[in-house]
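Course assignment 3, question 2. Fill in each field.
Student: A.L.
Task: Predict the tertiary structure for the chain below.
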Amino acid sequence: MASSARQTARTRQSPRERPAKPPLSREAVVDAGLRVLRDHGIDGVTMRAVAGEVDTGAASLYVYFPNRPALLDAMFDEVAAKIDLGPEPDPERWREQLVGLLNRIVEGMDDYPGIARVPLANPPTGPAAAQIAERTLALLAAGGVDDRSAAWFIDIVFLFVNATAYETSILVAEGAEEGEVGARIEEQLAQLDSDQFPHFARLLPVITKGSGEQRFNFGLRLMIDGLLHTEPPDL
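Answer field:
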């Protein structure tokens, strides 16, 4: 019995022999939050869950973030920092560059499903998000867009960008395939009385057609082309 106890004592690691935990930092907490987001979705990102990811108590996180919204803002800015801003604005290609940048933003948020809900509730002001907005404004300036229109356009276009990415995250969470959603909507619309809804009946063959990317880029073209043919707001 005594021999067994001594053997157990020898095999048990002392505190000095155990691997040291990585030091806690703001960056470590943000990275942990993004891991929780990927595994459990945006609603799963709680202070307790993130603390568990870095093997500490929730109280330790408040040293770096006063609350959950502040942590989510920092997580969004970390995602924004990964997005390629692309080449410097070219007045000859500014529209193409702008569409490319906005597509990369959606793709970047798609890597972290649900993160797009953060800027929908609270316009981001972190350094990386500000760099994206700055590049967008620079592209608009390269295209000769009036400053008043540019200032409002970034609010409107990013609402569209964020909503698109968040819609995708909802479909991912539900396990829905893009084609399945279109087929379901088409089936429901087909049940409408064609006499009462003649336009729906007429457009049914095309109303659900096209990929999400095609629809997104169509929306971007509508906004950008409309921007160039709309009087600046009277501020």
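Instructor remarks: The chain has twelve helices and no strands. The two ends are 87 Å apart (CA to CA).
Grade: pending
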